[in-house]
Structures are given as C-alpha cells and as structure tokens.
Amino acid sequence: MASFSSYIFLIILFIISVGASKIKSIYLPGTYQSSLLVKKHDEKIKIPFKTHYFPQILDHFTFLPKSSKVFYQKYLINDQYWHKEGGGPIFVYTGNEGNIDWFAVNTGFMIDIAPKFNALLVFIEHRFYGDSMPFGNNSYKSAKTLGYLNSQQALADYAVLIRSLKQNLSSDSSPVVVFGGSYGGMLAAWFRLKYPHIAIGAVASSAPILQFDKITPWSSFYDAVSQDFKDASLNCYKVIKGSWAELDALSTHDDGLIEVSKLFRTCKALHSGYSARDWLWEAFVYTAMVNYPTEANFMMPLPAYPVEEMCKIIDGLPKGASKLSKAFAAASLYYNYTQTEKCFNLEGGTDSHGLHGWDWQACTEMVMPMTCSNESMFPPFSFSYEEFTQDCKKQFGVKPRPHWITTEFGGNRIEQVLKRFGSNMIFSNGMQDPWSRGGVLKNISSSIVALITHKGAHHVDFRSETKNDPDWLIMQRKQEVAIIEKWLEEYYKDLKQD
Amino acid sequence: MASFSSYIFLIILFIISVGASKIKSIYLPGTYQSSLLVKKHDEKIKIPFKTHYFPQILDHFTFLPKSSKVFYQKYLINDQYWHKEGGGPIFVYTGNEGNIDWFAVNTGFMIDIAPKFNALLVFIEHRFYGDSMPFGNNSYKSAKTLGYLNSQQALADYAVLIRSLKQNLSSDSSPVVVFGGSYGGMLAAWFRLKYPHIAIGAVASSAPILQFDKITPWSSFYDAVSQDFKDASLNCYKVIKGSWAELDALSTHDDGLIEVSKLFRTCKALHSGYSARDWLWEAFVYTAMVNYPTEANFMMPLPAYPVEEMCKIIDGLPKGASKLSKAFAAASLYYNYTQTEKCFNLEGGTDSHGLHGWDWQACTEMVMPMTCSNESMFPPFSFSYEEFTQDCKKQFGVKPRPHWITTEFGGNRIEQVLKRFGSNMIFSNGMQDPWSRGGVLKNISSSIVALITHKGAHHVDFRSETKNDPDWLIMQRKQEVAIIEKWLEEYYKDLKQD
Question: Is B364 an interface residue toward A (CB < 8 Å)?
Fold first, then answer.
C-alpha cells in the first residue's frame, strides 16, 4: 500500500510538472530554454518578452543572518502596448511550478488583450523553478535549501518585485491585475487575498484552492476524469475501467512483462508492470485536463477534444480485442498524435527540476488528498495521512503540514467568508478539467465570481485565441475582459478622488 | 548624530516595552510574574484566567529541517462566561510585546463585555515575550535566534493556535473576534486582513498601522505630544520647550552634572546629561500617551488627566524658578505620583526582555521614522535611514527592511484599498495619544470604521470600566459593543444558511 500511495502521489501532480518531465527534451533549464522559444517562434506564436533578473531576498519571514541572502529571480517584460503616462495597467502573471517562458508561451490570452488595455505585461518566475534558483545547482540538494520553496515565500517575492518594479518604472498609479493558471491561479487568488494593496484584482484560471483538507471530496478528481470519458462513450469508460485488471493479470504472469512490453511497443523491455499502469494513467488524466476544443500543444500535441478522439479509437477497435490493447491504443494518441514515435519509453525518465520542485511542495504544504472511488475508471485506492507523512519523511526528511494551507489561506466555508470580505476575483473553470472540482464554482459576491464552461478544460481561457474557438470560449474571455474593465474603471475613478 | 539617533530610537519604543523596563521591579519574567497578579488582585482587579501552553512551530514559512522545532507558547483562558453550546463567540487578544498577563490585567474591557456576549476569552502571548521563548534563556542571544521574532510569524502563531483550540474545544461554529491595543492592535487589524477565514472581525485600539514609510508625517508623533501640553497650558509647553537648552548648558558646565544630579534628586551621581534628558523626555511622552480621564496605573500610577496635572505643577511654580527645575517637578509626577520615591535612578536600568525584543523588532521590520519639528516642545532632530541602518547593523548584525511592513500589510492609500476590500474592523483612537496620528482616523467603509475620541489616550477604551468614566468613553465602548454585536448577528445569520 505504501508504494501504491507513492505512486498516487506522483500522479496527482499538476499538469505543468508532469508536462515538464514529459517534454523534457525541449524543457530543460539552462541552455535548452531558448530552443523552446525558437520552436514556438517557428510555429508563429509570438512571445516578445525581454528577460530580466531581480535581486530577490531568500527569506521574507525571518531576520536570520542568512535570510537576506540574495538570489536572482527571472521575470519577463513586454511593454509594447503599455500606455505608461496614462497610468495603463500592469498585468502580472504569478508564475507557477516551471520555467516562466513556458507560461508566457501558454498564456496568450494576456498578450491578446494587452493592446485593448494598454497594459504592461510581466511574467514572474516562481522561486526554485526555471532559472530562479536561490542556491544555483545546489538548490535541490536537500531540505536545507528546498526549505525555502513554498507558496508564501513566492507570494512575498511577487509583492516585493512588483513594488520595486513600479517604483523603478515611476508608475505608482498603474493598477496591477494578477493572472495565473493552475497552481499559478491559486497564487493569483491568494495574492489578491493577501496583498490587496498591491493587486486590484485577480484572474485565477483552473485554480483548485479547495483541493485541501476535506473541503472537496477526495474522490472528486478521478471521478471527474472518469466522467469525461463516460460522457464521451460509456463503452470507452468500461473498457478503460476493465483494462487495469487485465494489465495486472498479464504483469504477474510468467513472461508477462515481455508481453506487456510487446503490447505497449516499448523501446526497452519493462522492469515493472507499474510502469505501464503509470503510462496509461497519466495519458487518461492529462488528456482529460487538456480536453481542449481545438487542436493544441500544451502538454503534448493533441487534436481537438482528445477525450472523444481516444474513445473513438477504443470504440472503433474490434470487439474481440483485449481491453488492455484498446486502452493502449487510446493512450497512444496522447503520446504519439504526431505519429513520430516508433517505440515508447515508459521507464527511466529523469525528473526535471520542475517535477522535483512540485514533489517537494506536495510533500510539505500542498497536501491534496485524493482517492479513487469504485465508480471511477481507475483501480480504487484510499489515502492515508500517516502513510503519506512516512513517504515524505523518507523522501525529504521533513514532515508535511497537511492543514497549513487552509490555515494560511482559508478554504473552509469560503463562500461565507469571502462574501463578507474581499473583492475583485475571477475564478474560471472548465468542467472537463478534473481540477475544476477543487475550484470555486459558484459566484461568491458581486465581484468574486465564478466563470464556468461545461466544455472547457485546464485554463483553456488563458490560451491564445484561435480561429476555431467555440462561442462559449469566446464568450468566457469576453466576460473576463468586461470584468477586468470594470475593476479598472473603479480604480481610476477612486484615483481621481484621491 | 549617530548617538542621538540611537537615543531617539529608544524613545520611540512603544509604551509597553518601556513600561516594562520602568516597572521592572515587579515585571520580570519567571518568578516575579505572579507578584504582578497578586498586586493587581490586591487592587481588586479580577483576572480569572487559566494558563496554558501550546506546542507552537518555530517557523511557519519555511520547511527547513529546523523549522518544525516546537516551543511552548503561553495563552490564558477564561471560560466562565462562555456559552459553548450556543456557539458563543471567542474573543482573542493578540498579544503584543510583553508578558501576556500584563495585557490581560490592562484589557478589562474584554472581561467587562464577556458576560453580555457569552464569550470565551483567550489571551495569547507573542513569541519571544514573557514565557513564550522559543530558545529558552538563549532566545535573545543573537540574530540566529531572534531572527524568528517578527509580526508575520506571530500572526501565523495565532492562526495555528486558534484553529487548534477550536478543534480541541469542538467549537468550530464559534466565531472569533480579535482584539488588540497598540502593537497588539496592529496585529489584530493585520490578523483580520490576513486571516479573515479565522477572525470575523477585529477591534484595533490605538494601532498605528500607518506609522511607516511616509504615510504619516514623521514629525506628527512629537507634534502630538507637544499639542497635548500646549492644549493644557501654553506656558507649560514653553517651559518644557525651553528646558532642554538649560539642561544642555548645565550639563556641559564644569561640575554641571553634579548640579543636575542634585536638581534631579538622583540616588547616584549622573554620568551623563543625556540621562536626565531621557528621563524628562520619557516622562512627557508617556504621560501624553496615558493621559487618561481617570486615575490609572498602566505605566505608572497617575492621576486623572496627568498632562494637565503636570502643567498645573509647572504653572504653579514661582516665575523666577528655572525652566529645568519646573520640567523636573512636572516629570516627578510621572515617576513619583505616589510620593514613595526618596530619590530617582536615572541610569543603569537593565533592559528587560520586553524592551530588548521590541528593540529587535524596531531594528528589523517595525521601522517607524520619527523626527522633531521646530514646533515641537522637544529639541529638533531628523531621521536618516542610513544612520538607522548602521546603528541596527551594529547592534544586531542585521539590516532593517524599512519598507517591508507596507509591502506585506499595506498602508499607502489605505482608504482606497480597503473601501474595496475587507470588512469588520474597528480602529479606535484617542487623540491625546501621540500614536493616534499613525492610526486610521476616518471611516473607510460601512464596516471598517474609525472611532475617535478627542480626550482619549492610548487604548483607554480597553481598560476596565470605572465609576468615574466620562460619557465619551462610555459611549465609545458602547459603540464598539454595538458593532461587534452586528458582526456576530451577521455571522450567525450566515451560519444558519449554510
């Protein structure tokens, strides 16, 4: 059970981290960063940012002699649309667990709307990701260095950097709006809550701020993945649900791993059946997350509505074929939509910093318990704080603080709390995205609103607009723009009365 | 100038810390604590609290191996009025820079109103004060231990403790209201801003949350002290204003210190004229702060409206007497109202932990620049961040972060920020109190309100009611009670709709 919970632990990582590990060939810190940009540039996605580095303080919340150590935090600036003199707004992306360039590439929404708002665009990298390494190559060495990686320090970084930036740009009167998707969305929402004097509003896309403690049912994430597949095709759901037992039976069979390796077209013979399970599992989970209405390449290149496409593959195969072979065929869409892979590497992927960093965060503060119910299409499993704690202690030498996030940021009874406190927040969610279940799905007040789309997926609203965008997506973005406009109008009105 | 700025630095400490050093004969940590209580008990002030200790985490904002070290944080509980079953509220005092018993003694208001509200009373001691020493006797040893002493860690302590307490008492539905005076009031206000999910409202009395950066004019504190004396008597103000030059002239004179020692009736011959200046200065500043409408013993036993009494002494002395002798006579009221002192100890007082602790906080985060204008009754002086930084580096080996408090908690344009964000805060101030100038003095919104009294002094509203309380004080407290009632009504109404 312990090894299984470790496995589960890996699977619940955010898309970004796993995405980072999956696309590690182009997503490595250092020299390879530019190749990502070049690649995207080739695809005619423009990300015209200048890179800067801010001397950031190591520890905002103690005054120990070493707290004031400085590291260089990366941030990107685009000022081509900014009307500084008119007090044009500053749109800040609160970076999440990865290289900030990648978020800039995948948050075209901000670039799309910048001209309309005459906005300055700033993307700030999260400490301990990308280039923003407080201890250089030693940053991930142990808990003695990693101990400074957490959300509160990241928020304080953003506060200090934004304040300094505004001062240096002599743009005190420019209002700041923060944007973020996924964990970055959680940071954006929390930033508005903790630093309302710095940001006048927050747009938090696909931010599962309620995925802690017992606020959201622990089984909801995998139930939501399962629902996506069930909605596409009941047969598809049943095939996948039945495939795990077939895999188990085959794996434990004499020479079973050889058969599994053959079936999964692995480049090298598998050492464990778990590798095949992980591989399938990840494909289904991440495809549900990025079940976008248009062809996209966030995690992997995928067609429009890839869950439906996967189910079409399953439903199209002969009745006699095994469930496992059907599941493999479906998962292949995720790993090989471009048809360029001749074989698959299911084992031996090294962790990128991004993955390792989130691993640390999940083992300390970001404790999001998850289980699989009997109704899900995955094998049922439970969650135990005790086992989780033991695993984390073993891995990092520190104990998780599983109730700290809700102590620090709240979450319980959020509607009652925030309807009496706070303002100017957008929580956008697409219900295809399993993370949506841990998000804010109802309007809380007139200015803390939930924008929900039934067919949307993981922060789809933050992606660049395309010619094929469906009406509901166009509408969602329009609503976001209108709300931000209202915040700004109010702000400028207040400013005049100063 | 450097030595003068160090001096100024001492003078701007909050009343509590200096109070602690002044009353050190009964205010020492450890064995002497109970004598304070006994003394007060003799005076028929009831403080029926039970003492508890909470295993608190050393560092909430990092996950270093040593962050999870536990120390024992003291807190006091009174449950005699609590209607737990009816979801009676929990009134929490967010302890400031001193022994929590002392705040319990001097916050009779909470005890007075507890029966009306059926409230549980909790007084939580601030880390690094009183008994709540994270490193025992070594807590003040150096920046390596003191580094964990700051307001954000203190607020997180309160959040963790309150959450745990409610869980242990099975009182999840009981709303929490936080109270605090002076620095404790700043903490109460900030707690509501940062932890609205834990406290439904905050009563912040005499909380100078705007005494940072350039939000409040740097000269306002000493101008306010001077105004108090000018309002009592213009002659009095002029005499004090003129006394400093006389002291300087006398001190630098041959055998001048002997004359000063004689004039000031010191127990031992003075080593420096600065001691006499400090002694006078403190008397005037703290008497202005505690210019209460009734006889009281917060810092020192004093008559009602002690500033007026001081000025009566000055104005009553013969015209021919020196200004310095008049200033001494006035200051003697502060140090010897009970007429029990035969001589005065102006030098050689050892710092209590309380003083030292605030000294550290003032040298790191609580940087409140202050100057004396030409219009004040004190000798003019300026403030320099550079000198301040040098002094602090010399004293503690760490550099102040003078703009951190406003980055973390805001303050600039507070009316515009909080009229659009936040709710349920009372900022009460008495305009006799020089700290009032750094407080919130205007209503910000319908539920973030300023309660101002012209004749009030440093958190006078938090003192126990007395028979001699003037109408304006009775009225101020009634307003506070009515507002708290409204918060609670709203909360219980929301709770029913859950």
Answer: yes
